[in-house]
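To: structure desk
From: M.T.
Subject: fold request, one chain
Message: Could you run this one when you get a chance? Sequence is below, nothing fancy, just the single chain.
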Amino acid sequence: MNREDALKLVKQHVKTRNLIKHMLATEAVMASLAKRLGEDEEKWALAGLLHDIDYDKTSDDPDRHSLVGGELLEELGVDEDIVYAVKAHNECHGLPRESLLDKALWAVDPLTGLLVAAALIHPEKKLGAIDVGFVINRFKESSFARGANRDQMKSCSELGLAL
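Reply: Done. Structure tokens follow.
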């Protein structure tokens, strides 16, 4: 699946504007991370873009989140590494995160939420306006973006990275 087809799929299955923004942010961070680690940028970007494809559909049943999306992606012939990473990003399924792709998506998912929240409180209200120091300061505030799991973000150490 290419990015154009993936975007069509997102528009078809995701109606929540902020969720689409989160998915696009995850795509961008995953592509950048793949480049830094010498991995397949297109594959990693697609995993980021598609990881919450079922979120609207499973919002009333979070235990099904990522399984429904994974099944959909599987039916569409999406790369099995992407399908597995999508399924494994929801910890309730108990799927081990083995590949760098799995580990990256796990760490990046809450990070993009933190980044978007940080941008929203910045005076310019733009992602491009925030810097690392601003984000790290927000990261240290446990009351800020409470839904952004700090331990999950810290798992970037499994990729050889530090916050």
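Reply (cont.): The radius of gyration is 15 Å. Let me know if you need anything else for the meeting.
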